[in-house]
Amino acid sequence: MGKYKGQSRLVLKPKSTQEVSQIMKHCWERRIGVVPQGGNTGLVEGGGVPVKDEVVLNLGSMNKVRSFDPVSGALVADAGCVLEVLSQHIAPHGYIMPIDLGAKGSCHIGGNVATNAGGLRLLRYGSLHGTVLGLEVVLPDGTIIDQLSTLRKDNTGYDLKQLFIGAEGTLGIITGVSILTPPMPQSTNNLVLALNSFENVLPIFKKTRARLSEILSAFEYFDRNAYELVVKHKLGKPLAEDEIADAPAFVLVETSGGNKEHDEAKLQEFLEEVMSDESLVKTGVLAQATEQFQQLWALRESIPEAVSKEGKAYKYDISVPVSTFESVVAKTRERLQEKGLYQTPGGVREVVGYGHIGDGNLHLNVVAEKYSDEIEAALEPFVYELVESHRGSISAEHGIGLMKAHALHYSKSKESIALMKKIKNVFDERGIMNPGKVLE
Ligand SMILES: Cc1cc2nc3c(=O)[nH]c(=O)nc-3n(C[C@H](O)[C@H](O)[C@H](O)COP(=O)(O)OP(=O)(O)OC[C@H]3O[C@@H](n4cnc5c(N)ncnc54)[C@H](O)[C@@H]3O)c2cc1C
């Protein structure tokens, strides 16, 4: 939305942890605010924006791989390494990064950890809270905390690294990351199913988990409106129109395993089973070649780009029970209709829903002709209250940043927020680390 404009007059690009430490010491003594910056791909408004005149500390020059163990898969890298570069570094050894997202060509591993990014592989490999083995962090006063362990098991006291994962740079600067990378799957495949109704998503998800079990690596959902936007903006190859007919919902299933014949047979069997039940699916397309695999993924991965091409987007990245995905989208649309803002001149063009069913993460996007106070007032706090009514999270994977700090209470109790403030104070009593972000 571009709601916040950076006001910084100084960007520093340290080349080593020692330099980061010296900068922080200097800023600590003079009470100068510091905003850490990775690849600047964060999707939460204001997360990495210096709203006053804070110093921007960009990690881009700390971009070396420190070590890689081809037996355990433990990778230790500077925080400024670009995610895709790390993938390329370990690929020849037969490993992949446990995290993958659309911004992989620009985002840093340090930024990924700072935002606890989720992405497309979370269903298979879990969150960064599990895959990060250790961190090196520079505290606001310049102290270097070296916890760059490559151990998988270490029960020696409090697991401090967890506090920095998802802290959005409010507790310290992450300068090094140790992460466990999984072996590269030998065979990957996918299929897209066009469903008869949204109600079929959950039974199919249950069936998918039961039938594909250990080879299931992604289960993604997108509604008809999201699909239509991708097709409209020519970002994905449409499925056969007569076969999908009026399907209101789609799912993409991906498998990754170690035995091509075995995995393909399993997927084929699964497809035949769901296709034989006409009440469940209208049609299904199984990728037959690499090109088609990418085409099917494009239908899901291109949605954010299609949304941007369609208009100005209000983006909500929420966790709610999967069974409520469709009703959350429908209620938001109804709300805009009631306010006379849906498909009216200058109003909202479309409301779309898509996301990671496997993780209970819905991306609710409201696409408008232009941003307006009226639309914002219709959406907020309405969406947050809706999420709260389902005991959900107002930010599933993008974080809180500046824009949602005031809304934290919809997902965290008064007591939890008070404790978070105490923790912030332990690390940063002078309030210089990414001020105003996450906590008001
Ligand atoms: C096309 C696209 C697709 C995306 N898909 C996903 C997705 O599927 N899942 C998902 O979770 N996110 C997704 N994102 C959001 C974004 O890519 C992630 O949040 C990413 O982890 C941010 O990394 P970055 O290096 O760009 O961080 P930045 O944007 O530079 O910073 C993000 C926050 O982290 C802090 N920070 C950055 N580096 C450090 C550091 N070294 N130490 C301490 N704090 C730091 C910043 O101050 C800021 O608060 C997507 C973004 C785009 C553009």
Automatic annotation (TrEMBL):
Record Gene3D superfamilies: 3.30.465.10, 3.30.70.2190, 3.30.70.2740, Uridine Diphospho-n-acetylenolpyruvylglucosamine Reductase, domain 2 (3.30.43.10), Vanillyl-alcohol Oxidase, Chain A, domain 4 (1.10.45.10)
Limits of the FAD-binding PCMH-type domain: 4-184
Keywords of this entry: FAD, Flavoprotein, Oxidoreductase
GO CC aspect terms: mitochondrion
Listed InterPro entries: FAD-bd_oxidored_4_C, FAD-bd_PCMH, FAD-bd_PCMH-like_sf, FAD-bd_PCMH_sub1, FAD-bd_PCMH_sub2, FAD-linked_Oxase-like_C, FAD-oxidored/transferase_4, Oxid_FAD_bind_N
GO function term, MF aspect, one: FAD binding
Swiss-Prot/TrEMBL catalytic activity: (R)-lactate + 2 Fe(III)-[cytochrome c] = 2 Fe(II)-[cytochrome c] + pyruvate + 2 H(+)
Necessary cofactors: FAD
Protein family per UniProt: Belongs to the FAD-binding oxidoreductase/transferase type 4 family.
Protein name per UniProt: FAD-binding PCMH-type domain-containing protein
